[in-house]
Structures are given as structure tokens and as C-alpha cells.
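stage 2 :: seqdesign
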């Protein structure tokens, strides 16, 4: 079949497209493009991760043994920052690409800056060492948040309790300090026990002792390891306890509170939760077919990192979503507190805390 070089003539012998038709075609095409643009819908859900570009404006050693550094973060133009409430944290996007969560330990009334404090953990995942060694004053830093996974309900402002008792263990003082400051401002009855290895390891000790006899500072080198009586002196009915620190300390407090009627317990730990009733299982990486074993007392995340050390993670407690993966086959044992039923049905899993009740999971890795 031969294709003609020129359009055939119309009924009037003209070979060019009529000008009126060209104008109509241009208008119709423009209208169609505009309609497509304004009615376009992105099927992916919009996620507001509240990313902000800040800068480190101040660094201070907050513990005399120099294991804790405090950072003041502000906007480059000095603008006001999004508000936050005691118990909130920031996600820091570190220069290496690591994402780490740190509690806000400043004053919510300071709308021009955030303050976080980080203890150096040489044997940890590298985030704390990077904060200490790679974020001098003037460093740009992208943060996400603030978010609150440890909300503070003040008596008379959302809590039926009549008094407060705070227990902070070492760096666990960071979310507790803003809570105590707010309770003090509101004139609420409160008390606090602050504990650690030694006074030299306790950050913000001068600020805490500034509250006077409301606070008991108790260190292992002077008083030995604290029991429930030492951590909860004078705690009785109608008290709300807020505690943050190492897992053994939280466990001691939780066991004691079970025997205390009308006592609330709110807690946060800075270490992964213990694995309860874990069973060994296998993970298969869909991309390579590699199969790894996960022991009964080991997390899926730890097993994955041994083979894939570049996998992202952060909180290790099942709330930040950084370690989320997709399950292609197998039945996960979900132990997180943030994924929705729809997300779980779609295969989402947080490998820092969730696992399998035996058998094998095939992950999209």
C-alpha cells in the first residue's frame, strides 16, 4: 500500500487544513490538557514527614564524664519552629544517612530552638558516635517532627491523678526534664528520683538539682542498685508515674506498680524490648534466595543486619517505621504498635520487633 505524499483535497479543492478547524483543534486540545491536569489524582497516600532544615547553633557537654553532648538546633533564618509537648522526640537525618530518634529535652516555651542530648555508645549502631564526632556548631541537619510517642497527661489537664512521680535513669532524663519543668510551672505536686552509675554520668544534673528537695539523686556507686522502694518513695494512690531509662529499671517499677491500686504508669525505654515467647524461624530474601535463621531470643532486624548491614533502622522499639519491609509469603507475628490493619494486610512488617511464630517469612529484600 502506497502512502500519499500530500493530503487529498477537500470538497472545495483545498489541500490545507481549514484555519477554523485548526483553531478549534488547538482550543479543544488545551481544554483537554487543563482538565487532565486539574483532575489528576496520585494514588499514593501523601505522607507529611515534616522535614526541616536546621543548623547546630550550640554544643555542650552535659555530663562531666563527657559521654553526653547536648545540641541546640535552630532554623538558619531564626524563624519560630513547630511547637511540641513534653515527651516528644525528633528524627535526625545524620550525614551518613542514618535516621535516629532523640527526645526533646529543652523548654517548649523556647519557640526558636530545639534541644536534644545524645550519649556516646561506642558499641552501638553508629548514630551516637556520628552525632558526637560529625556535628560541630554550624553543621546543617535535617530533622523530622516533632512527634510524641511518650505523651504527658498533666493532672487536672487530662489525667485523674492528683500528683506526679518521675523516675529517670541516666540519659532517660531527657524526656522527663520537660515534664518536670511543666509540672513545676503549673504548681502540681510532684517528686522525682534520678539515678545512674555515678554523678559524673548524669546529664543536666545542675538543672535537675535546681528543683530542690523535690528530687532525690541516687547513684549506684554511692547507694548500690536501687530497688522498687528506692525508685518509688512515697508513691501512693492517685499518683501518675512517668519513667524513662534502662529496661531492668522499668521492669522493677512495672512489677511494683502492679501491686499498687490507683497508680498510673507511663514509661519509655532507650533499649529494645525483651523478646517474650519467641520461637526460631527463617527469613528468605526474595531478591537473592538467601535464607537466614532467626533464633528465639534474637530479633529479625539483628539477623538481617548480619547479612545486610546497610538496611535502615532506628528506634528498635516498633514505632518509627524506619525498618518497615514487605512480607511476600508467610505469616508474621506483629508486635509493633503503629501499623494499621490495612498496612498489615498489604504485607507491611516492622522487623525490629515483629517476627514469625516459627516457619519461614519471604521478605521483599
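stage 2 :: out
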Amino acid at each position: 500500500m502506497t502512502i500519499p505524499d500530500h493530503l487529498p483535497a477537500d470538497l472545495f479543492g483545498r489541500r490545507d487544513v481549514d484555519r477554523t478547524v485548526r483553531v478549534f483543534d488547538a482550543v479543544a486540545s488545551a481544554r483537554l490538557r487543563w482538565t487532565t491536569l486539574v483532575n489528576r489524582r496520585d494514588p499514593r497516600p501523601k505522607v507529611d514527614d515534616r522535614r526541616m532544615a536546621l543548623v547546630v547553633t550550640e554544643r555542650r557537654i552535659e555530663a562531666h564524664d563527657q559521654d553526653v553532648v547536648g545540641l541546640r538546633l535552630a532554623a538558619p533564618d531564626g524563624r519560630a519552629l513547630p511547637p511540641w509537648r513534653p515527651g516528644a522526640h525528633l528524627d535526625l537525618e545524620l550525614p551518613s544517612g542514618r535516621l535516629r530518634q532523640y527526645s526533646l529535652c529543652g523548654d517548649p516555651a523556647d519557640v526558636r530552638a530545639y534541644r536534644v542530648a545524645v550519649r556516646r555508645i561506642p558499641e552501638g549502631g553508629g548514630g551516637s558516635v556520628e552525632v558526637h564526632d560529625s556535628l560541630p556548631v554550624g553543621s546543617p541537619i535535617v530533622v523530622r517532627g516533632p512527634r510524641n510517642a511518650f505523651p504527658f497527661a498533666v493532672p487536672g489537664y487530662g489525667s485523674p491523678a492528683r500528683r506526679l512521680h518521675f523516675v529517670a535513669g541516666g540519659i532517660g532524663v531527657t524526656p522527663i526534664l520537660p515534664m518536670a519543668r511543666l509540672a513545676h510551672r503549673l504548681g502540681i505536686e510532684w517528686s522525682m528520683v534520678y539515678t545512674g552509675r555515678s554523678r559524673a554520668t548524669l546529664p543536666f544534673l545542675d538543672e535537675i538539682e535546681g528543683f530542690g528537695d523535690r528530687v532525690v539523686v541516687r547513684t549506684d556507686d554511692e547507694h548500690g542498685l536501687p530497688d522498687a522502694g528506692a525508685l518509688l518513695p512515697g508513691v501512693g494512690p492517685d499518683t501518675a508515674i512517668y519513667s524513662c531509662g534502662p529496661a531492668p529499671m522499668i521492669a522493677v517499677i512495672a512489677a511494683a506498680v502492679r501491686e499498687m491500686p490507683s497508680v498510673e504508669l507511663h514509661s519509655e525505654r532507650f533499649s529494645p524490648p525483651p523478646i517474650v515467647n519467641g520461637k526460631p524461624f527463617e527469613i528468605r530474601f526474595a531478591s537473592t534466595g538467601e535464607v537466614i535463621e532467626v533464633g528465639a531470643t534474637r530479633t529479625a532486624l539483628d539477623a538481617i543486619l548480619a547479612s545486610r548491614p546497610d538496611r535502615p533502622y532506628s528506634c528498635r522499639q516498633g514505632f518509627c517505621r524506619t525498618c518497615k519491609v514487605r512480607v511476600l509469603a508467610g505469616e508474621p507475628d506483629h508486635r509493633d504498635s503503629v501499623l494499621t490493619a490495612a498496612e498489615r494486610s498489604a504485607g507491611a512488617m516492622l522487623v525490629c520487633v515483629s517476627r514469625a511464630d516459627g516457619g519461614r517469612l519471604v521478605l521483599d529484600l
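stage 3 :: structure notes
- The first helix runs from residue 19 to 38.
- Residues 40-48 have pLDDT under 50 and may be disordered.
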